Amino acid sequence: MNYQYQRGCECGNIDSLEVSKIEAAFELNYLSFSKSECSKCGEKKMSFGSINSPEIDRELLTIWAENIDYLFCPLDEGLTLAQYKENIDLYLEFIDDEIINAEKKNVLIEALCVMIYDRVDKTDKEDLDIINKIATELKLRENQVLFSQHWIMDYIKKVSFPIIGVEYKNSLSSKVDKENHKDYLESIIKESIDKRNSKNKLWAKIKNIWK
Ligand SMILES: [Zn+2]
């Protein structure tokens, strides 16, 4: 699999930059590429940008866990990580690993709570099994969940915590409340969709959450 950044220009030219899987996953050097000049006309402003992001796997999660500045999706890592239901055991393994940074664990706990939230209205056996599995595993790690709760958005906690069996307390200290979060995402959503064509599924998901 090849990974590349692309920047489009009003003149019709599209410049591409081959990057590694790790660069693409964490958008390393993307900003400088997006600000570079069009190779055809010299224009600095790009009309669109795109990144083909790799799937999140053990290799990337390990690098992510070791580098506090590396983010999978600067907009919302929890939602991004929650797209990979095949990674549930992997996330739990990292949550249990003592050397993993606490902030990274917060994000992983949040991602698992989002996975529950995303499935509460589903009736498929697979979705119900996922809810049961995550709820059971997080109940076993109740202290960690409580430790991470300030990090998780209230609307996610309100739905997922009772299913896990952890007391939900409406907190003013949450990272952001739903409305602020919604406004924040809306303000950047267009640019983000342009930039991350490969993440359209995620944005569809986010828009679903708002409904
Ligand atoms: Zn141009």
List keywords for this structure.
about 210 residues; mainly alpha; three-stranded antiparallel β-sheet; about 10% strand; elongated; disordered C terminus; binds zinc ion
What is the residue-mean pLDDT, rounded to a whole number?
86
Strand arrangement, major sheet: 2-1-3
**Broad shape:** elongated
Estimated helix fraction: 40-55%
- Radius of gyration based on Cα positions: 19 Å
Number of helices: 11
Enumerate the spans where pLDDT stays under 50 for 5 or more consecutive residues.
188-195, 197-211
Number of strands: 3
In N-to-C order, the SSE pattern is EEHHEHHHHHHHHH
Quickly give the structural class: mainly alpha
For the report, how would you describe the main beta sheet?
3 strands, antiparallel
Provide the list of bound ligands, each named once: zinc ion
Beta-sheet strand percentage? 5-15%
Task: Write structural notes for this entry.
- There is one protein chain.
- The protein is mostly helical.
- It is built from 11 helices and 3 strands.
- A 3-stranded antiparallel sheet has the order 2-1-3.
- α5 (about 90-95) packs antiparallel against α6 (about 100-120), α6 (about 100-120) runs antiparallel to α7 and α6 (about 100-120) crosses α9 (about 155-165).
- It is elongated, with a radius of gyration of 19 Å.
- The site of zinc ion has 7 residues, from loops.
